[in-house]
Structures are given as structure tokens and as C-alpha cells.
Amino acid sequence: MSRSVALIIAPFHMGLEGSAVGAGPNALLDAGADRVLGSRGRPAQVEHMRLRDAECSDIDAVVDIGRQIRQAVQQARNKDLLPVVLAGNCNSAIATLAGLEPDDTGIVWLDAHPDFHVPSTSRSGFLDGMSLAIAVGHCHEDLRGRIGFGRPVAEKKVCLLGCRDIEDGERERLAASAISDQPPAGVEAVYLHIDIDVLDPTESPGVNFRGPGGWSLERVCATVKSVAAELPLAAVNLTNYRPDFDPEGKTAAAALRILAQLVE
Ligand SMILES: [Mn+2]
């Protein structure tokens, strides 16, 4: 059964609107994401997140946008709509999870990277490389709290798929965790996270990371379809599309095909 979608547009790269991957969400909207996610001949309802203080710090911007995403997700769910968030960064996952009820919600996370660093293992300190670690409560508790995400998700409720660029530190942390590549057990619903860099660069050049060995579009579509068939989707994020690296629109077309699986 297909569900009506609320499409939430968060066009930011670490607080910078429309820059690099921050341009991805509106490019996908221009390519027809609202039509692809529509139902009964009508496009999906669209809501735009806007930074309220352009002068604020990176982290304050992540919090501001994160709170708006959380509220938009809650409002969508109150109206029985499926929230689909198009965002620049993977840290948008924290905000979407904040809008759900994590006690009964698992995570299926598709990504070339596990995003499982903590500050002590990360060379870059880049927040996005810690997004899944934050979701399971391993670091940045203050950020999680400011966005309004109280209880982290239990590791055993997390399924991580498609990773091919795992760094030292992350590998050990993952091995020591209860995260697996199996469907999350004992959950009533699933938050589905799609970092578009899970795709192979031959089919999808429009990302920052273009390492070989990624998943085919067919495989991602089949996985998304089977996740949606097995458990109710609580919300979906699609992140990291970089239109300036996608002159032929291959990644945009791939992203729309993936989104179409959500409503078929
Ligand atoms: Mn990611």
C-alpha cells in the first residue's frame, strides 16, 4: 500500500545553504522528487528548512536546522504522512530520529562509510563521519540533546549496509558494537538512511567520495524495496548528492529511482 509523503528539503552543508552537497536537495526537487513521491496524481507536499541566523556557527546551524527537521518530521507523522528528508549531510539523521519514537524504531543505514567515528578516532573531526555513532549514543550527547533526540537507538537495532570505505578506529569500534548487516530485530518500524555515495561512481558520479566497488542502482533499489516491504518505514533521509559533480544528471536520475521505490 502506498503512503502519502511529506518531502522535507534541508539544503545545507554544515550550515552553508546551497553549497556543495547543500545544493543537492533543491536539485533533486527541481528534477521532480515531489512528483516521484506523489500519490493519486498529486505531487508530495514540500516543506523547506531555512536557517534563521546566517551568522551563527556550524554547530549552531546544525542545531537550528536539526530542530526544524525534527518538527517537520513530527508534523508529518501526526498527519500520517511518511517523512522523506532530502539533506546535504548525514548528520540530518539525528534530527529525523529526534522526530520519531526511537524505542520501537530500528535503523537501516546505506552508506559507503559507516559514519561511526567518535572525536578521538576521527582525524578530520568532521561531524558527518560521526552521524551513526551519535545516533547510538557514542558521542556528542550535547548536540543530540539540543536537537531534541533524547534516547539513542540501541546498537542491535541498527543494520549497516554498503560500506566500502571504513577507516582505522571505525573498524575496531564497529567490530566491538552490536551493529550488523542483518535486518533489525524486535522493532516496529525502520528509519531508512540512504547516503547516495553507497552507489558505484560509474552509475553515480555526483558525490564527494567516488571510490570503486559501490553498489549498483539495481541493488540499492531492490534493498530499499525489500526494507519497505518487511517493516513499516518511519522516515527516510537521502543525503550527500553533489550536483556540481553530476553534469549529466546520472546521480539525480538514480536518486529519483531510489525514491520511487518508497511509494511503489
Ligand atoms: Mn554518510
Overview features:
264 residues; alpha/beta; Arginase, Chain A; seven-stranded parallel β-sheet; two-stranded antiparallel sheet; 9 helices; 17% strand; binds manganese (II) ion
* CATH homologous superfamily label: Ureohydrolase domain
- The tally of structural domains comes to 1
Q: Could you tell me the number of beta strands?
A: 9
Quote the average pLDDT. Answer: 96
- The tally of helices reads 9
- The helix content is 25-40%
| SSE string, helices as H and strands as E | EEEHHEHEHEHHEHEHEH
CATH class: Alpha Beta
Major sheet summary line: 7 strands, parallel
Give the radius of gyration: 17 Å
Outline type: globular
In the CATH hierarchy, the architecture is 3-Layer(aba) Sandwich
Q: Largest beta sheet: what is the strand line-up?
A: 4-1-5-9-8-6-7
Q: Give the termini distance in whole angstroms.
A: 8 Å
| Weakly predicted, low-confidence segments | none
Percentage of residues in DSSP E strands: 15-25%
CATH topology: Arginase, Chain A
Distinct compounds present: manganese (II) ion
